[in-house]
Design a protein that fits this description.
Number of domains: 2
CATH topology of the largest domain: Receptor-associated Protein
Shape: elongated
Distance between the termini: 50 Å
Largest sheet: none
Length: about 210
């Protein structure tokens, strides 16, 4: 809805700007810049809407990469790597939004920041529950000296199971959500196309 309004506003602004250009007198008594000013906020609004849409799409892709991150952490830990090194190698292997964000995170750590603090801040800002759970597992295994391999493997299985359950739940509720367009949109159109012509033909034949 917002994108539609922004597009309509942009179109109207362009028309207004063209009209302003056409009305400029030969002596240039009316400035051209003033007629083009409405185009600027419309473009800014469209850019904001597009930016939010891209951010949401990027966040969804990043969230889908969390199970892969957990698998890579388990693999690196089983090879004898520390949690930090495993996370660095996982970031390089992952690619995508999550890999890019983690590489930037370790870039700040190389400049003097504490990578654990940066990781916790990143997990909070991402608003991803699975990513926050991953960071909590890393912190807990480091504090207790537990096995990172088992913890990340168990968490990966848990995340995948929860996502499968959510997918199945959405699939079960799909028929209920389809009832409204079926009853109020498709069925009336079907009746108009099939029953109404037959009734009209019958009425005319009776007359």
């Amino acid at each position: 809805m917002i994108a539609t309004l922004a597009g309509a506003f942009a179109a109207l602004s362009v028309v207004a700007g063209a009209a302003g250009l056409a009305m400029v007198s030969p002596m240039g008594s009316r400035p051209v810049v003033g007629s083009l000013l409405p185009v600027m906020p419309a473009r800014a609004a469209g850019s904001r809407v597009g930016g939010r849409r891209r951010d949401r799409a990027r966040a969804r892709v990043r969230d889908r990469q969390v199970p892969q991150l957990l698998d890579l952490l388990a693999t690196g830990s089983s090879a004898g790597m520390s949690a930090e090194l495993s996370l660095r190698r996982a970031a390089e292997t992952l690619g995508g939004p999550l890999g890019t964000d983690l590489i930037e995170l370790f870039g700040r750590a190389d400049l003097g920041a504490r990578w654990r603090d940066e990781l916790e801040s990143f997990a909070i800002e991402s608003r991803s529950p699975d990513l926050r759970r991953t960071v909590a597992v890393l912190r807990r295994t480091d504090e207790l000296g537990a096995s990172l391999v088992e913890a990340t493997s168990d968490l990966a299985d848990s995340v995948r199971h929860a996502r499968r359950a959510a997918t199945l739940e959405r699939a079960r509720t799909a028929p209920v959500k389809m009832l409204f367009p079926l009853v109020f949109l498709i069925l009336p159109a079907f009746l108009l196309l099939t029953v109404v012509p037959v009734l009209l033909t019958t009425v005319r034949s009776i007359r």
